[in-house]
Structure formats: structure tokens, C-alpha cells
Amino acid sequence: MTSSSPWSTFLGVAVLAVVGTLLLSSCQLPPGNTSSGPVGQASAQQGNAGTADPAVPETPSVTTDEGTVENGVRTFRVTASEFEQQIANFPIKTVRVWGYNNSTPGPTLVAREGEPIQLVLTNNLPVPTTIHPHGLHEPNQFDGVPGISQPSPVAPGATFTYGPFTPAHPGSFAYHSHTQSAVQELRGLDGMIVVLPREEAAKDRVDKDVVMTLQQFAPPGEGQLVAPFPPGTGDFPFSTINGKTGEASGGPIVVKTGERVRLRVYNASNLSHSMHLHGADMTLTSKNGHPVPHVTETTQNVAPGDFFELEFTFDKPGNWIFHCHVPHHTSNAMKDGYLGAPVGMTRIFSTEGYQPAVAPGYFQYQG
After folding, report:
1. In whole angstroms, what is the distance from residue 186 CA to residue 271 CA?
2. Region 139-157 average pLDDT
3. Omega into 156 within 30° of 0, i.e. cis?
4. Which residues contact 38 (CB under 8 A, 6 or more apart)?
5. DSSP state of 166
6. Residue 172 CA to chain centroid, in angstroms?
7. CA-to-CA distance for 156 and 158, rounded, in angstroms?
8. Residue 363: which of 246, 243, 253, 277 has the closest Cα?
């Protein structure tokens, strides 16, 4: 066996040192990460730093209800009843409707991803009713269809609990009557449920999350119970967002220029509505509780029972409207608003501090 020379030994040690240095460099953690755990774990921890708590939705003209957590279950209590509600400033102002917790639409119920929920319904209506949790993938016994999934509807004066169950995934959903739907839903027994993700990527978080329910009403006269079907042409005389026509909404929705806004739009009415935003494009991000490939547009048609999540940013200040593009639906019983402005299924967005502000006469107009 031939012995190695000192020179060859030196070369061998040098090569080993270089290879070792290269191997150590390839295994080093990313800059700034001092974790001593595996590389995969360190990367995951670094990725979590890019998450944020989602914004809690707001519903102009309607309350937001986060329920109460009892024994790990988020509980929402809703009471169905008949009551008076102002829907417009003219030519009819106040009508009798059916709704939940003295509101139509009912309060927006906000839950969190992965947590069990239950809806406790008390029926103070003169007729039986049920609740259908729309899109939540509830067990069949809580689906709320009388004679099919629910042996009998909830009688007047009775209470029934839907749940507990865990919604399948985050998104925008609804709760509404599924008893005599052609009467009860069109008298106002509708509301939205929003299931928020536990956290979302910081890049996806919006600054403002706004819920809008589209409805239409056919009141026979001032203070009277709305009819389920409009007379004559079949077109409802009053079209609303969150139970109010544009001039009866009380004021604009104030946002900041450059602020990212999400609209959750639910159509609880009998007709489709072509919803159009002035001042910015909208990006469709979700339909019926599921993410979709992003599409940029200015108008989104919303069919009955549809939910759309749309995002936008005003890059220039102003008073901008969001409205149904069916012309009759931006009037109140075929009557226009202040100076001929759209009313009906209309809401105004105003960027913070913009002048001139929306004229007070728009919200005070009596026809």
C-alpha cells in the first residue's frame, strides 16, 4: 500500500473544507430567522407573519350580531315577528313587514371558521315558520324544510334550535324562511350569515367589509302589511338595500380614497338585479361562498339566491353610487328622488372629506 504524500493530504483536507462550507451554506435559515427547528417549520413560521385578522363586516341600516359563545358553541337568537319598518321617504314611508329581531333583513350573523354554531328561532308570527341556513352544509335535520327535512314547522309561540353544527367553510351565506317561501321571504324573512376565516393573508385583507341584502316590497298603502305579489305588471314598486331605499338610508357610506372595500351582496328578492358601481371597477372574488378566478367588471348581475363578494378601491375622491341598473328599480313606485336623482335600490359611497358633500336635500326629500 502506497502512503500519501504531505501535499496530497493537504489537498484532500482543503477539498473537504470547501465542500463542507457549501453544504452548510445551503442549509442555513433565511435571513432574520433564528429558529433552531427544521427548515420547513421555520418557513411556515415566516409565512404566518404575513397573516391578519379579517375585518368584521358592517351592514348599513342593519345590526351585526356576533352571538354568544356557550360551551364552545356560538349561539344566535332570532325572533320572527310582524312589525313596522320605514322602507322609504316617499310616496309610502312606513309599512308592516315580517322579519327577525324587528328588522328586515334580519341582523347579519357573524361566525368564525371551524366553530360550531346554532340558531335559536322563536316564532312570534301568527303562522308556522322555519329557518333554512342557506349554503352552510348543515345536517339534514337542521335544513328547515317542513314536511321534508323538518317533520313540522315551528308553531306560533314555539322555539326551535337549529344546531349545533359546523359550517363547511368560510364565506357569505343566508338564513331565511323555507315555509310558504313565496309569502314569507317576500314579506321580509331573510338575513345574512358571514363565516369569517380564522385568519387570512395580509395581502387579502380588506379595510372595510360591507354587507348588502337586496329586497323588494309591494305595500298596498301606508302602514299596511306588504303583499307577497305586486299587482299589475308584477314589478315590485319598492326596491331596497338592507331594507331601505336610497334616500331613506340616512347618509352615505364613508370610505377613504385608496381604501380597499369588500361588498357582500345577497339577492333575497324575486327578481334579478344588475348591480353597477360608479367611480371604480369591481373585482369578483367569490360566488355563493366559494372563491372564483378574479374577474374585473363594473356591473354584476345577481340572481335570486345568489351571493357575490366584490372588491374595489376608489382611486379618486367623490360621491359614487352603487345601484341596480334596471331603471324602474332606482325609483320609488316610479317616482324619482331629489332633483331626479336615483333612489330605490341605491347606496352612496362618499370618500372621506370630499366636498361638495351629498346635498342634505337628497336624504330629506319627501317626493
Report:
1. 11
2. 98
3. no
4. none
5. -
6. 5
7. 6
8. 246
